[in-house]
Write a structure and sequence with these properties.
Layout (H helix, E strand, L loop, with lengths): L2 H6 L7 H8 L4 E4 L15 E6 L3 E8 L2 E9 L7 E4 L2 E5 L5 H5 L8 E8 L4 E8 L7 E7 L10 H11 L11 H13 L4 E6 L3 H6 L2 H9 L5
Length: 224
């Protein structure tokens, strides 16, 4: 099947059997935090199924046999599937900044919180937006991952957000002015190579509100 058509069939709440029928044999499937190494394990048993081709990596999180969350990472700059959220096409993945994508969802104007992880040879940025009732209980994830296409990201801006989040007020933009400035900066300069949706209802949604937990999911299937 055409990869664009495969992604068009991807939606929250689909069953695992349908996902496997659409995407074929998975690269891997892991029980999230089953090894006990997570700092914050999910509140319910969850399985992450990973599908990968030369163009794209799809990470699908299943709970009770229903798709609770998914992320789509473009691995090739020429593969630009639409960023879909609450039935809207926000623009082609890998071509627009986080802020440009968010500008397409007004007047929903979701609240979000972001975090950055930076290692010796890798960088990762995750922005998680709460949807709630106005967004039909669908949350949005926009991210930049090191195993995706090399779309623009400013490392100094990313590090600035990371350090600001460690300051007084933490990741609360209302309590931490430097973090608030960092959010504006990273959203205006980063072109995400990853987007996703999650079912924004229940305890698993609360777990997914924390970008650190989403970082953990995005590390699954990577070389680091």
């Amino acid at each position: 099947m055409d990869p664009y058509a495969e992604l068009a069939a991807l939606d929250l709440d689909i069953r695992l059997a349908y996902f496997e029928e659409t995407f074929g044999v998975a690269k891997s499937a892991v029980d999230v935090c089953a090894d006990g190494e997570c700092l914050s394990p999910p509140p319910v048993p969850a399985q992450l199924v990973i599908h990968e081709t030369d163009d794209v990596m799809v990470r699908a999180l299943f709970a009770d046999d229903a798709l609770a969350a998914y992320t789509v990472t473009t691995k090739d700059e020429s593969f630009t599937p639409p960023v879909r959220w609450i039935g809207m096409d926000l623009g082609p993945l890998g071509t627009l900044t986080t802020q440009e994508l968010l500008d397409e969802v007004e007047p929903v104007a979701p609240d979000g919180v972001a975090s950055v992880r930076h290692g010796m040879v890798w960088l990762a940025y995750v922005d998680v937006f709460v949807g709630g009732a106005p967004a039909d209980y669908r949350g949005l994830v926009l991210a930049w991952t090191f195993d995706g296409a090399p779309t623009p990201i400013d490392t100094e801006v990313a590090d600035g957000l990371m350090f600001a989040g460690d300051g007084p007020g933490g990741h609360d933009p209302l309590a931490n002015a430097e973090y608030a400035k960092g959010l504006v900066a990273i959203r205006g300069t980063t072109v995400p190579n990853t987007y996703g949706e999650y079912r924004d209802d229940g305890p698993l949604a609360q777990w997914l509100h924390d970008p650190e937990n989403v970082h953990g999911l995005l590390f699954e299937g990577s070389e680091y």
